[in-house]
Specification:
5-stranded parallel beta sheet; alpha/beta; 323 residues; 19 strands
């Protein structure tokens, strides 16, 4: 027999956004259910040192922070479910989701916090050195490379913005791009070319990241010239892959309005989606900041928006019954 779980607030995703929504929803008495998804805890579970989350004077570990957030959510009354949603129906309330376990979840409101994943180059050496000099977030990790030599891989807005940001910490930033022109907006390119701390490596693609030292960390990047095929080595302490992100929204395509990049569209200043009663928070709707603290903030917003939606719906139901 198929199991069914019903709640006033159903939350998909268990990163900073989903767990913050769960904490606020539980404190409002909505008994939220959190379906944790394919990566419980979100991207922070793959991050080691976290130095920019408020409230901790010392460096903390990403997995530990997410364990604490989950424990807090459970302590105030949220329920965690180890499942991944494979089918959605938001045509009517309560909204209905089906997990790959076959379990059915229904919610009077739905909070989507499924996040986004950075695009990587797909190299074995990249995987080996993630968190050891190779990163996909300059804002998160640039501070650890103060006074060191770093490189950014990419040619769009994200890559240029990351390179410019890293000049706050490094006097030697190389932007590696496989072509001889950038895709970034012209105003960003002007700022990039005017910055004396940034050097361009045109027509170059990454062959591998080279580790070394004790403990092992990134020491160089091997490059191939896309025109001549010649190999070269660039000595660096940090390498930042900036080739975009994948929002986890494929499940909602055709059900909820998405923008051209696949992010969920929300009403400005809120977490309201195109479907009343469905809210989106965190990296699944935020293509600009993508930080744990901003994700947590929008998770709070989503819970408050859902609570107000339910209060208005309940009032309308009572008013209709009294007529």
């Amino acid at each position: 027999m198929t199991a069914t779980h019903s709640t006033r607030m159903l939350i998909l995703g268990s990163g900073p956004a989903g767990l913050s929504a769960a904490i606020y929803g539980a404190r409002a008495g909505l008994a939220p259910i959190v379906v944790q998804g394919i990566q419980p805890g979100g991207q922070l579970t793959t991050t080691t040192d976290v130095e920019n989350y408020p409230g901790f004077r010392e460096v903390i570990q990403g997995p530990w922070l997410m364990q604490e957030m989950q424990a807090q959510a459970e302590h105030v009354g949220a329920q965690m479910m180890w499942d991944t949603i494979v089918e959605v129906d938001v045509t009517q309330r309560p909204f209905r989701m089906v997990g790959d376990s076959g379990t059915v979840y229904t919610g009077d409101t739905l909070v989507i916090a499924t996040g986004a994943q950075a695009r990587w180059l797909g190299l074995d050496s990249e995987e080996l050195l993630k968190g050891k000099g190779v990163s996909a977030c300059a804002t998160c990790d640039g501070f650890f490379f103060r006074g060191k030599k770093v490189a950014v891989i990419g040619g769009g807005n994200t890559a240029v913005e990351e390179a410019l940001y890293l000049t706050n910490h490094s006097h030697d930033v190389t932007l590696i791009h496989r072509r001889d022109t950038l895709r970034a907006e012209k105003i960003l390119q002007q700022r990039l070319f005017a910055n004396e701390r940034i050097t361009m490596a045109w027509n170059k693609e990454v062959v591998r990241f080279i580790g070394g030292g004790q403990p092992e960390g990134l020491v160089a990047i091997e490059l191939r010239d896309t025109v001549t095929g010649a190999l070269s080595t660039l000595e660096v302490d940090g390498g930042f892959v900036a080739i975009g992100h994948h929002p986890a929204t494929e499940l909602f395509r055709g059900h909820i309005a998405l923008d051209d990049d696949g992010y969920i569209q929300v009403e400005k200043g809120t977490t309201n989606t195109s479907v009343p009663g469905v809210f989106a928070c965190g990296d699944v709707m935020d293509k600009h900041y993508r930080q744990a603290i901003t994700a947590a903030g929008t998770g709070c917003m989503a819970a408050l928006d859902a609570e107000r939606f339910l209060a208005a719906a309940d009032f309308e139901t009572v008013a209709q019954a009294a007529e």
